[in-house]
Amino acid sequence: MNHLQERDILFKRHPANPILTARAWPYVVNTIFNAGAARLADGAILLLCRAEDRRGVSHLCAARSKNGVDGWIIDPAPTLLPDPEKHAEETWGIEDPRITFLEGIGKYAVVYSSYSKLGPGVSLALTEDFRQFARFGQIMPPENKDAALLPKQIGSHWALIHRPVSPLGAHIWISYSPDLRHWGAHKPVILARRGSWWDSGRIGLSAPPIETPVGWLLIYHGVKETVSGKLYRVGLALLDRERPEVCLRRGDAWVFGPATDYERSGDVGNVVFPCGSILESDGDTLHLYYGAADTCIALATGSVKQMLKWLDQHGKDVNAGLE
């Protein structure tokens, strides 16, 4: 087994990669990347893509496919544009959506980064069809991003995974809300490590957490500062099913990182950045959609069972990320 195969044993890249680029877009954009993912009622796959225009300002645009690989039907105009007149927090664009179907409400929650002169914050919108959106506005102030909701309530509260930044670092936190508007009970879940670790610079949620019989599987990204710039890779952790503020296991090693030309070379090189995933009906096969080099969208496939097995073998027991 060669070095590339050893590194990427949990995630296999699709041979059609990259599956979406700016060349496919019906209007002029600079780059297409960092897409949230959802399975629609008719079985089709929707990617809500971050589209950066030639000013450098981002909006969101939907692409739909029957198989989630090709045959994409892309909205002819932006699906969700920044609305700085009503939402000043979106003055410099909206970015990096994560999509969760909320059980009990029957709507998709789109949690995205809203970017203003004060920095990136976390905003929320609900939709039933990805054509009409009910904006809740900013639910976490700057600097904060990399956020997603859990699909069901924990007790009587919704749970939001997010990544605030403070002088003490950029770590993964969880917060709770009774109504999706008012948030509290903020707790750290996983801390960025220090030193030469692959996730020593900062960490953040990748795709929304995946419920399993043994807990919430967390796919997260870590950033390492190198002499040639930032390096973005992906790791795994497991959160308690009933108390997701408790991290049960966290892998020391990263499991997926930039290796191909389209991941290493682009507007921002050496980046794999997942924002969405689709779990197949077998409850095991996971399709991970990720931005590559901040320039295009690619697809990798893995097994939830194998990820949990890997965490059993290679993960460490931790308590609330405070190892």
Architecture blueprint of SSEs:
Blueprint: H1 3-7, E1 12-13, E2 31-39, E3 45-52, E4 58-65, E5 73-74, E6 94-102, E7 107-116, E8 119-127, E9 133-140, E10 144-149, E11 158-166, E12 169-170, E13 172-177, E14 184-190, E15 202-205, E16 210-212, E17 215-226, E18 229-239, E19 247-251, H2 261-264, E20 272-279, E21 285-292, E22 296-303, H3 304-314, E23 315-317
Antiparallel strand pairs: 1-22, 2-3, 3-4, 4-5, 6-7, 7-8, 8-9, 10-11, 11-12, 11-13, 13-14, 15-17, 16-17, 17-18, 18-19, 19-23, 20-21, 21-22
Structural notes for this entry:
There is one protein chain. The strands form 5 sheets. Strands 15, 16, 17, 18, 19 and 23 form a 6-stranded antiparallel beta sheet that branches. Strands 10, 11, 12, 13 and 14 form a 5-stranded antiparallel beta sheet that branches. The chain has a 4-stranded antiparallel beta sheet with strand order 1-22-21-20. The protein is globular and about 50 Å long. It has a single domain (17-316), classed as Glycosyl hydrolase domain, family 43 (Tachylectin-2, Chain A). With 323 residues, the chain is mainly beta. It has helices spanning 3-7, 261-264, 304-314, and strands at 12-13, 31-39, 45-52, 58-65, 73-74, 94-102, 107-116, 119-127, 133-140, 144-149, 158-166, 169-170, 172-177, 184-190, 202-205, 210-212, 215-226, 229-239, 247-251, 272-279, 285-292, 296-303, 315-317.
- End-to-end gap: 33 Å
The SS-based structural class is mainly beta
Largest sheet: 6 strands, antiparallel
CATH architecture: 5 Propeller
- CATH class, named Mainly Beta
The CATH homologous superfamily is termed Glycosyl hydrolase domain, family 43
Number of domains: 1
